[in-house]
Design a protein that fits this description.
four-stranded antiparallel beta sheet; about 270 residues; globular; alpha+beta; 10 strands; six-stranded antiparallel beta sheet; 7 helices; single chain
Amino acid sequence: MANAIPALTAALFENDTKDAFLRHALVVGLAGCADPAKLQELSADQFASVRLGVLLAMRIQKDPAIARFLFDPDFRIATEAARAIWDVPIPEGFASLAAASGRLGTLANESKANAPIVVLAFKRELWKNETAASSKELESAKAFNRTADEIGETNEAVGFSDHGNNYLQRLSGVVTAPADGAYQFYLTSDDHSVLTIQEVGAPKSTQAIARVDGYSDPTGWDSDSSQISAAIQFKQERNICLKHDTHKAAAEIIWQSVGSCQVDRSSG
């Protein structure tokens, strides 16, 4: 499989982060083909698009050497490394993350132009020993009315994992559009899930915009039309509450401006 590495890195360079779906597939392939030593070698590549792909592959492998990217000259790569260390988590990188915090703050102030399509921060909540037989059942699950058994925060729209089978979880946050336009949301989960939005401060405006019944492949964003929301019109700086309820393991959301190849799932 190592023979595929040159082709994968070449494709990362050619894609240049334009197509997030393709990048994700290449990253998964690279993580499966390259051992940690090879990824560390590739982390010095001269092209940022390749280094970003290598970083994401190291995230999949939970490699502590990912901390070297905290000092990458590219702000996006440095912040992606910080997210990986904190969110996966990779405890061996915590000391390096603390040491790099001042530098990252300075870079953030110099990089306002790198804002993603939609800005958000997510709250993650998990209820143990709870089940739901469908996405419809999730919408009326009484478990969500009590305090969660586990609560966390993340800058990525990715839920808890590795918690067994019988639990419900919720990702919730506020999204803000940087410009007028139509946006679409995509979700994957294992298994059932439902994605809802509402106007901030207006619970009665809640509406389901996408759902999964059964299992969806983590990379199969468009496997079923129900996983994709209709085009939703946003006014610049309009705040919308986004909530993703799911049964069991992996849960993830991405979004893009309609007609754009730029896709995001994090707050930058």
